[in-house]
Amino acid sequence: MDDTQLCFPQLNSSCIKPRRPHTQAVLLHILLSSISLLTTALNLLVIVSISHFKKLHSPTNLLLLSLAVSDFFVGILMSFQIILADGCWFLGDAVCMLYCALDYVVTSASVGTMVLISVDRYVAICDPLHYPTKVTMRRATVCTSLCWACSFLYNGVLLKDNLKQPGRYNSCSGECVVVISDMMGVADLILTFIGPVTVIIVLYGRVFVVAVSQARVIRSHTFTLQGPQTVYAKRSELKAVRTLDQSSVFDVTSVPLELWLFYFNSCLNPIIYAFCYPWFLKSVKLIVTLKIFEPESCEASVL
């Protein structure tokens, strides 16, 4: 048909390019481009902050660094999603497979990191006396490395047929799809969504119960010894509770029903850091003003 738009007009096997109003297409590109740029920039600030300043080298921050790395790659991968927004893929089957594989790996690594963060917060609040001995930099490094290694290995097995022959499941030229078997799809749903969410809900539920019971004990002791007075929680404890709540939300949205929610969540993470962690704002100020290039800047007190 004369009015039909094709991705590759010179090919008989070309996919049909979906029609979209010009205004809608422009707004979609602006929105995705803005989120992509903001996601990449903000998570890069988190990566530089935790990597550069020695005061921030802690097990918890190492997990946040892992999450920021995955979110950073999400921002980069959004540039490919912008291409797909037009309904056609012009970069070839090999690049398509690379994009899809990285998308799967980053998503799995993000989910795994959120589970590790929930375990870290569980030990910190439910077993604080043994936290320094149970959660060490070495163990956090090993767990984070294993998380990423398992993500690469697991998704390599999941996408092995697609990796052997990129584009084998494309129905027309200009399409970018990957296909996994029904059995592997069910296994992936359990391993990357149902399982992690269940673990996090159980751990956070236990943390909530412990926090409430401790608060009641403290309140009763304070009332008995000193009479009625207002009890103020430490700022670090408040941050821990907020972080726990946010982590559960992050984990659920790491495997979203809508793709843009996943991308927007990766952009939102560092913004929430700014409200929960004072060190982030201090670090950003030093980075933006280029003071990190000064001698001994890594020793700066940002806590």
UniProtKB/TrEMBL annotation:
It is found in: Cell membrane. The keyword Transmembrane applies. One of its GO terms (cellular component) is plasma membrane. It is a multi-pass membrane protein. The keyword Transmembrane helix applies. PROSITE patterns: G_PROTEIN_RECEP_F1_1, G_PROTEIN_RECEP_F1_2. Belongs to the G-protein coupled receptor 1 family. This is Trace amine-associated receptor 13c-like. It comes from Stegastes partitus (bicolor damselfish). The gene is LOC103368543.
